[in-house]
Amino acid sequence: MAAQRSKRACCYLRPAQSGCQRVIRTNLRYHRPDSLAAASDLLWSHRQDIAVLGGGTHLLPRMTRDQESVSHIVDLKALGLDGVNISANGVSIGSRVTYDQVLRHDALTRILPLLARVSHGVTGGRQVRNIGTLGGSACFAMPGSDMPGALVGLRSRFRIHGPTGFREVDSTDFFTSAFVNALEPGEFLHSFDILDIPTATGYHKIKHSAGSWPIATATAALWEGQRLEITLGGVQETPVRIDVTKVADQPEEFAAAIDAAITEPWDDVLAPGSYRRRVAAAAAKRALSELRRRVA
């Protein structure tokens, strides 16, 4: 087995007037494997009691609030998953690529402007853009998050590594329910492959304030200059992709197609499902309008 770093950390500490205050309250063993096989071995050996550390913007706050408790943390930083490869076969994006890396990658933003559009407006602002990763957002599978819907809207394929090697999953199959993904014990997300590049895209999200999670997101994509698709995020537990080619120029039929696709609206503290359903068509219409401006 390849060498790896491993150390024990009792907790994270922060200064307080009365001394040090515990933040993460469990004994943690930190692992930093240097090969894909070693990472999968760790995840398999400690299944049910281990978490993968991406940017940490979801995991660490949950651990400080005692919403998640594990004894082992696996940091994938040494595995080279923070690169972008653009070739004649499409685009491959490592799961540890951050929003800021997307914004600073000129070729990527030119080929897939949707990713830059989403990354720039991600909830949390500059701090999250600097350390939050596309893969971490996808794996957390939060319904009211920008990236799941955008990745489904781009017809992404997810490359997963596990104890037996690689397998691929379509983005529509990766998100199985709210906060649940298709990863099996011992597996981690390696990269995203976008093999087909859309002719044009548009994006819109509705939220209460700049720092709020989205109530609804809509990704519009035009494929081969003909097929129009809308992908909704935040309105159900998982993103939903809709073919609107035949109704895109018919406002009433377009709104009806969007409404019909929402079979189980998502409720949370930010908005009831009934409200998300009502605003979905408006978000979709604005995403489609942005796409058409880009085509023009």
Automatic annotation (TrEMBL):
Pfam families, per the entry? FAD_binding_5
Q: Where is the FAD-binding PCMH-type domain?
A: 23-199
Reply yes or no: does the keyword Oxidoreductase apply: yes
Q: Which domain of life is it from?
A: Bacteria
Keyword tags: FAD, Flavoprotein, Oxidoreductase
Family matches, as InterPro entries: CO_DH_flav_C, CO_DH_flav_C_dom_sf, Diverse_Substr_Oxidored, FAD-bd_PCMH, FAD-bd_PCMH-like_sf, FAD-bd_PCMH_sub1, FAD-bd_PCMH_sub2, Mopterin_DH_FAD-bd
Which SUPFAM superfamilies does UniProt cross-reference here? CO dehydrogenase flavoprotein C-terminal domain-like (SSF55447), FAD-binding/transporter-associated domain-like (SSF56176)
GO MF term set: FAD binding; oxidoreductase activity
Has the keyword Oxidoreductase been applied to this entry? yes
**Know the name of this protein?**
FAD-binding PCMH-type domain-containing protein
Source organism per entry reads Rhodococcus opacus (Nocardia opaca)
